[in-house]
């Protein structure tokens, strides 16, 4: 490849890099204007907005002005063999520009040709410094800037000390004690550049991680709402259907009983509206006692004999809410699919764990084809919820019928001293 072709390729790369930088800057300005307008309309700026266009090689180009002393010596004819010095200056600047633009992309920064370009810079710097000395020694801090932009990790300290020692040695041979300033400048430029760029990368990674966490939080909230809506509407609509069928059957022979069923349908609908509003706002905390009463009512309306037993210490609101969801889902499945004549619900607790068991004597089929150890869609979601709370959920056909068993740990502070003396309550 000819020298002219290499120069042309480098100029094309520079133009492309500048075009990308301008595009990023325009996007950042547009986002900033939109954020400022939102701040004026809403009274405050959105927290954690865009940080601006990402840094690139243009940020390190102004430091090439440190080589103006060598360029001035060339123009004034103070440099021996000026053609060699001019070519060396041009090649050094080209290598510097190439390296600093590669440094802001991790893949290109770690590529072999970037390392080779940095080594070539080091050899060229040593050659120019040994040949000319004086202002040409300022290329060592520039070499440190390029090295700090490329090198990361444990090798950084070794590279910085090595370059500083090399700069001090060559500078001492050419300029005496003034070489201490060159060595110090080389070390400082290497470490400071690496620190600033590493910090900028860390900030951007943290910002990206925070955005990812926010995105996951939104997804979790959507999942929570969809599960709540599934469980709420599934149970409520099942009760409405069962009571509507009962009202239709009773309408011809017992109008008062039919009107009672219609009144229950109205109450269930109103309660469903309230629960859906609570689910939307995320403040729904179901009571286990309330869910057991509703389960008894739904089972009775469906012609299934309910048997409810509860014993053990009082439970925390969070535990009651989770067990209430299990009761709701299990009873809904029993009403819809079991064809059972009897359904037993038992809640047994001790100071360490509480256990809920719902068993019917029906056909033993779940709402949907179950996965191993887990029933339908609602039960899958409940399994994840109880697992997150340190509990477990098992559902599947029994010897006769279908059984759902849930266990949860008793949270600290739930058990009162005299709670264990409370007798078993049978309903």
From TrEMBL:
Coiled coil among keywords: yes
Source taxonomy: Bacteria, Bacillati, Actinomycetota, Actinomycetes, Kitasatosporales
Recorded superkingdom: Bacteria
Protein name: Sensor histidine kinase
Domain (Signal transduction histidine kinase subgroup 3 dimerisation and phosphoacceptor) ranges: 221-287
GO molecular function, one term: kinase activity
Pfam families cross-referenced by the UniProt entry: HATPase_c (PF02518), HisKA_3 (PF07730)
Coiled coil ranges: 196-223
Keywords for the protein's UniProt record, in alphabetical order: Coiled coil, Kinase, Membrane, Transferase, Transmembrane, Transmembrane helix, Two-component regulatory system
């Amino acid at each position: 490849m000819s020298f002219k072709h290499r120069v042309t390729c480098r100029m094309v790369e520079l133009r492309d890099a500048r075009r990308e930088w301008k595009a990023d800057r325009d996007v950042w300005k547009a986002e900033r204007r939109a954020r400022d307008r939102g701040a004026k309309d809403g009274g405050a700026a959105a927290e954690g907005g865009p940080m601006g266009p990402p840094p690139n090689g243009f940020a390190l180009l102004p430091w090439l002005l440190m080589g103006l002393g060598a360029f001035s010596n060339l123009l004034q004819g103070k440099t021996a063999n000026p053609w060699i010095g001019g070519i060396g200056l041009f090649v050094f600047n080209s290598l510097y520009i190439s390296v600093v633009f590669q440094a802001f992309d991790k893949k290109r920064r770690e590529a072999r040709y970037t390392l080779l370009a940095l080594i070539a810079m080091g050899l060229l710097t040593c050659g120019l410094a040994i040949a000319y000395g004086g202002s040409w020694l300022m290329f060592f801090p520039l070499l440190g800037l390029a090295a700090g932009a490329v090198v990361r990790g444990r090798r950084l300290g070794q590279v910085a000390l090595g370059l500083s020692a090399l700069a001090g040695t060559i500078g001492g041979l050419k300029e005496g004690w003034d070489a201490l300033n060159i060595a110090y400048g080389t070390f400082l430029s290497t470490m400071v550049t690496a620190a600033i760029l590493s910090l900028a990368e860390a900030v951007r990674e943290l910002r990206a991680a925070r955005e990812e966490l926010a995105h996951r939080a939104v997804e979790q909230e959507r999942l929570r709402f969809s599960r709540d809506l599934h469980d709420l509407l599934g149970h409520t609509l099942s009760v409405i259907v069962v009571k509507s069928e009962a009202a239709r059957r009773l309408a011809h022979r017992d109008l008062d009983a039919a009107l009672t069923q219609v009144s229950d349908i109205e109450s269930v609908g109103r309660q469903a509206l309230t629960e859906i509003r609570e689910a939307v706002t995320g403040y729904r905390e179901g009571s286990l006692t309330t869910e057991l009463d509703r389960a008894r009512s739904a089972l009775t309306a469906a012609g299934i004999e309910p048997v409810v037993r509860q014993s053990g210490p009082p439970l925390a609101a969070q535990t009651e809410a989770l067990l209430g969801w299990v009761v709701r889902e299990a009873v809904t499945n029993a009403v819809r699919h079991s064809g059972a004549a009897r359904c037993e619900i038992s809640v047994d607790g001790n100071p360490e764990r509480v256990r809920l068991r719902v068993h019917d004597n029906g056909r033993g089929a779940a709402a949907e084809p179950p996965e191993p150890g887990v029933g339908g869609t609602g039960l899958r979601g409940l399994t994840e919820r109880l697992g997150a709370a340190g509990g477990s959920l098992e559902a599947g056909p029994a010897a006769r019928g279908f059984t759902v068993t849930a266990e949860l740990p008793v949270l600290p502070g739930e058990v009162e001293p005299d709670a264990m003396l409370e007798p078993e309550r049978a309903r």
